[in-house]
Amino acid sequence: LEAQLAAMRKKAADALPGSSWSPLELNPDLPPERADIVIVGGGVVGWSIAYWLKQKERVRGGVKVIVVEKDPTYSQASTVLSAGGIRQQFSLPENIHLSLASADFMRNINEHLGVLNEDPVDLQFNQSGYLFLASEEVAHIMEENYSTQRYAGAKVSLLSATQLKEKFPWINTDGVVLASYGLENEGWFDPWTLLNAFRRKAISMGAIQCCGEVTDFKYTTKVITTTDGEHLDLRRIKSVKVQMPNSLEYQPVECAIVVNAAGAFSGKLAEMLGIGFGPKDTIAGIPLPVEPRKRYVYVVHCPDGPGLDTPFLIDYSGVYFRREGLGGNYIAGTSPEEAEEPDTSNLEVDHQFFEDKVWPSLACRVPAFEKLKV
């Protein structure tokens, strides 16, 4: 077929000398027609999956992996809109072990994601630790979590209110009974750099990048019966439809496996396969419990604020802040109440939310922030 197309192009060129027009020209941005694995979502999770798949393949090029991302600007991607924090202060051992492994990976990132003849990766990993503050009401939970964290291998220290004030004199310790401080492997980094490092490495190993949106699936259906007598439609994906941006053109991609790495939009992607639309009180009627939630992150300036030793502080009120760079800038925010969840159809920032919900708690905990500017 390719030889026939080439012959037709040559015939057209001979008939129209001096013209660059060519019939049946293929869009060079179209993904391949076939792949072993299609990853939907090109954020840090999607490209990490692509990297590890290529890392684990037994024969170079043995697994054909395509990563499909609908927004090449990443303007609405959770990866680049995040605060970029990493911690081991969790209540579940699984989360702690995963985070410890991630911290080790990041400390030695160029051993994993370095590419020959390319600049080394600099994540700007700031290991200033997390600092959780607890009131008398929740101090016992912090003590339980501390035991779990230490047993799992995390380097964490408990501080009394007096010890906290000695270590961080800029903190107002009113209402604080106990604090938990991460001594190593915790802090923040540049998530955009991490995403690009995974993408660059995965592409160098043979993963294929595609700018487009998965809009449909083709699949076969087989009815199975569970031990409870429940009938289930077992669907096996045969191909995905990749719609090209700003175009009517699309490409069906045959594949064996599809990985849903669409982040906040994973639930919507699952709905395309009918997940969650079965009869209620059945497995088929359970939707994928992932939906987008909008959070406001504010950049504030306070020249007299906490210095270079500032940890990623999380107050028991829910308000958090961390240092951003070296010029007296910080990022801060908090999660809204369930009944106050903001509209997710846009990324507009509610400045009144900062005035009402963030600033009062921030200034109470760090008096210097009374003079901040957003």
Note the main attributes of this structure.
374 residues, alpha/beta, four-stranded parallel sheet, 10 helices
Task: Give the number of DSSP strands.
Answer: 16
The span between the termini is 61 Å
Strand order of the largest sheet: 5-6-4-14-15-16-13
Main sheet specs: 7 strands, mixed
Q: What is the mean predicted local confidence, pLDDT?
A: 92
Into which percent range does the helicity of residues fall? Answer: 25-40%
Low-confidence stretches: none
Structure class: alpha/beta
Characterization of this structure:
By secondary structure, this protein is of the alpha/beta class. The chain has ten helices and 16 strands. Strands 5-6-4-14-15-16-13 form a seven-stranded mixed β-sheet, with helices on both faces. It has a four-stranded parallel β-sheet with strand order 8-2-1-12. The chain starts with a helix and ends in a 9-residue tail after the last helix. The mean pLDDT is 92.
Short description:
The chain is an alpha/beta fold. The chain has helices spanning 2-15, 44-56, 78-81, 93-107, 109-113, 139-151, 161-167, 191-204, 266-271, 351-365, and strands at 37-40, 65-69, 85-86, 130-134, 156-160, 178-182, 187-188, 208-211, 213-225, 231-243, 250-254, 257-260, 298-301, 312-314, 320-323, 329-333.
Detail the topology: elements first, then pairings.
Blueprint: H1 2-15, E1 37-40, H2 44-56, E2 65-69, H3 78-81, E3 85-86, H4 93-107, H5 109-113, E4 130-134, H6 139-151, E5 156-160, H7 161-167, E6 178-182, E7 187-188, H8 191-204, E8 208-211, E9 213-225, E10 231-243, E11 250-254, E12 257-260, H9 266-271, E13 298-301, E14 312-314, E15 320-323, E16 329-333, H10 351-365
Parallel strand pairs: 1-2, 1-12, 2-8, 4-14
Antiparallel strand pairs: 3-7, 4-6, 5-6, 9-10, 10-11, 13-16, 14-15, 15-16
Helix pairs in contact: 2-8
